[in-house]
Design goal:
The longest helix is centred in the C-terminal third of the chain and has 20 residues, at about 370-390. This protein has an eight-stranded mixed sheet with strand order 9-8-7-10-11-14-13-12. It has a seven-stranded parallel sheet with strand order 3-2-1-4-5-6-15, with helices on both faces. About 45% of the residues lie in helices and about 15% in strands. The chain folds into two domains: about 10-205 and about 370-415, 3-Layer(aba) Sandwich (Rossmann fold); about 210-365, 3-Layer(aba) Sandwich (Rossmann fold). It has 20 helices and 15 strands. It binds nicotinamide-adenine-dinucleotide. Nicotinamide-adenine-dinucleotide binds near residues 315 and 316.
């Protein structure tokens, strides 16, 4: 099979998508500034970028920025349920190579990855590392049925050939960075990858503030439920979970935290949350939200004791946190209530409602993070891509931290765009901070 120029659901949706992209642009002033500079300087001239990202209106603003910087962009979905089909259509209308639609199956998902790899990208941008791990599996000959779907698109293009062309990559999310660190610690990472997720101007804002708001937005849009007065259980009090917990409390919920890390559990307790095991919390929660990046966090024994009508939602990267297999096995009937709500009727008649098939609720049931937050994350992606191209051949083959200057540039530009002032250190203060002579 050869390369399709694009593979999306419905080209006729392009004008709706175009309006949405323009709406997002208004809230992305930092990326707009970068785009203006990129248009003049063309730092990505002759570079092919292979991106595996949620195909949303904000991603559209990023890929247009990369294109204006001179790159040719090939974009596939990083989740089968997160693509905004109208946005995909608008991008195709502008000549982008886009592969993905909402509701694609596993085979189609990996075939879309295959299309991006067929372009032999020079830079990869990933959200969750499905693109990068596919490259590594193909190169190392670890061929599962999913990878076989990607390979079916590649024809005679080999893993070696794909890797040879790559200068470096960028990773957007925590789960992707875990997977990269695992590759790196086993000495298997094949090219340098920047952990965009770990930049301060990403993980202090996108993860807690962006997901905090948008995960609740997803739950509210899907169910119309009143958050005030609800008993909400959040699993994971890391960057994402803590953001969700704080926002839920702000809307009037009583929030319980489930954590495995003693420090984060203690932090949750000192910040005023009840801390319990999942076995205890499962008995009383009205709404459960997972945000751990871990597998089977809510499973058989927890479903057994949940209240009738409990709502289950996941904000972690993969649909593995709420065990769907256990839910299916324990239920006598499965009902589709809406696009976003699946009800499992248990043997004793209790009904448990799973949102967005257990996939990231903010993208499956809403539109993902607010554009103003993605402004920072995607500015980091654009500047990190430029950094990779500028430093091609000299970066170490490891998981690399976003350079401090890039992180600070994004934060400063964002502050300026918000009309906020930054205090400046006086020479005397700088000297004081650098000196060890002065004391009591
Ligand atoms: N929905 C989104 O748009 C979005 C945005 C950013 C990140 N993410 C994803 O959210 C997940 C969490 O990201 P993060 O940045 O908060 O990671 P993090 O490492 O900061 O936090 C994860 C927390 O979960 C805890 N944890 C692990 N296993 C657990 C278990 N079995 N029970 C309870 N707690 C457990 C860890 O101790 C940690 O405190 C990742 O999968 C990440 O990729 C999603």
């Amino acid at each position: 099979m050869g390369l399709k120029d694009y593979w999306i659901k419905d080209q006729s949706l392009d004008s709706i998508g175009d309006k949405k992209i323009r709406w997002a642009e208004r809230e992305m002033p930092v990326l707009r500034m970068i785009r203006e500079r990129f248009s003049k300087e063309k730092p990505l001239k002759n570079i092919r970028i292979g991106a595996c990202l949620h195909i949303t209106k904000e991603t559209a603003v990023l890929v247009k920025t990369l294109r204006d910087g001179g790159a040719e962009v090939y974009l596939c979905a990083s989740n089968p349920l997160s693509t905004q089909d109208d946005v995909a259509a608008a991008l195709v209308n502008e000549g982008f190579h886009v592969y993905g639609w909402r509701g694609m199956n596993q085979k189609e998902y990996y075939e879309c990855i295959g299309h991006v790899l067929y372009s032999r990208p020079n830079v990869t941008i990933d959200d969750g590392a499905d693109l990068v791990t596919s490259i590594h599996k193909i190169r190392y000959g670890i061929i599962s049925s999913e990878i076989q779907h990607a390979i079916s698109i590649l024809g005679s293009v080999t893993g070696e050939e794909i890797v040879k062309n790559i200068m470096g990559g960028c990773e957007e999310t925590t789960t992707g960075v875990y997977r990269l660190r695992s590759l790196s610690s086993q000495g298997k990472l094949l090219y340098p990858i920047i952990a965009v997720n770990d930049a301060a101007s990403k993980s202090l804002f996108d993860n807690p503030v962006g997901t905090g708001q948008s995960a609740l937005d997803g739950i509210i849009r899907a169910t119309g439920t009143l958050i005030a007065g609800k008993d909400i259980v959040v699993a994971g009090y890391g960057r994402v979970g803590s953001g969700i917990a704080v926002k839920a409390r702000g809307l009037g919920a009583r929030v319980t935290i489930v954590e495995v890390d003693p420090i984060n559990a203690l932090r949750a307790a000192m910040e005023g949350f009840r801390v319990e095991s999942m076995s205890t919390a499962a008995k009383h929660g009205d709404i459960f939200i997972t945000a751990t990046g871990n597998i089977n966090v809510i499973r058989r024994e927890h479903f057994q004791v949940m209240k009738d009508d409990a709502i289950l939602a996941n904000a972690g990267h993969f649909d593995v946190e709420i065990c769907k297999k256990d839910l299916e096995e324990q239920s006598v009937r499965v009902e589709t209530v809406t696009d976003c709500i699946t009800t499992y009727v248990m043997k004793d008649g209790r009904r448990l409602h799973l949102l967005g098939e257990g996939r990231l609720v903010n993208l499956a049931c809403a539109e993902g993070h607010p554009s103003a937050v993605m402004d920072m994350s995607f500015s980091l992606q654009a500047l990190s891509s430029e950094y990779i191209v500028k430093n091609r051949g000299v970066l170490p083959v490891e998981v690399i931290t976003v350079p401090r200057e890039i992180d600070l540039t994004v934060a400063k530009l964002k502050l300026a765009s918000m009309g906020l002032e930054l205090e400046e250190l006086t020479d005397e203060q700088k000297k004081y901070l650098e000196s060890w002579h002065l004391g009591t």
